[in-house]
Amino acid sequence: MNWLKTHKSDVLLIAALLVLGGGLTLFLLATRQAGGTVRVQIDGETVMELPLDQDVRTVLGEGEHTNTLVIENGAAQVVAADCPDQVCVNHGAIQYAGESIVCLPHRLVVTVDGGASNDVDAAVK
Ligand SMILES: [Zn+2]
């Protein structure tokens, strides 16, 4: 029985994995950067893509289902909406890749896409 020996090498392996994992986490944190574009989806369809580095104010939706989206200083935010819950308005600004604002009543999703170095194809369809 050389259980102890095996156990020892397992510990070493786990330690190595931990160090590796820690390094990876640090790497991911260090490379986390401002996203490139803001993608607007309504009903699951992408209706608009806007660069994060250009300040803009736009009204999304129509009739009694509108959300006012503002991009300012590299961050996107829904500043006004006529939905009943106002969750999207209260969400605050988003700026990192993967972050999103959801307005359930309006089936609206605003997501930050890509990294700063990505080539942005602004044309949808
Ligand atoms: Zn809303």
In short:
By secondary structure, the protein is α+β, with helices and mostly antiparallel strands.
What does the model show?
- The chain has 125 residues and is α+β, with helices and mostly antiparallel strands.
- The protein has two domains: 1-31; 37-113, N-utilization substance G protein NusG, insert domain (mini-chromosome maintenance (MCM) complex, domain 2), CATH 2.60.320.
- 26% of the residues lie in helices and 36% in strands.
- It has two helices and seven strands, in the order αβββββαββ.
- A four-stranded antiparallel β-sheet has the order 2-1-7-6, with no helix packed on it. Strands 3-4-5 form a three-stranded antiparallel β-sheet.
- The radius of gyration is 21 Å and the shape is elongated.
- Mean pLDDT is 85; it is low at 116-125.
- Bound molecules: zinc ion (ZN).
- The site of zinc ion has 9 residues, from helix 2.
- Residues 81, 83, 85-88, 103, 105-106 line the site of zinc ion.
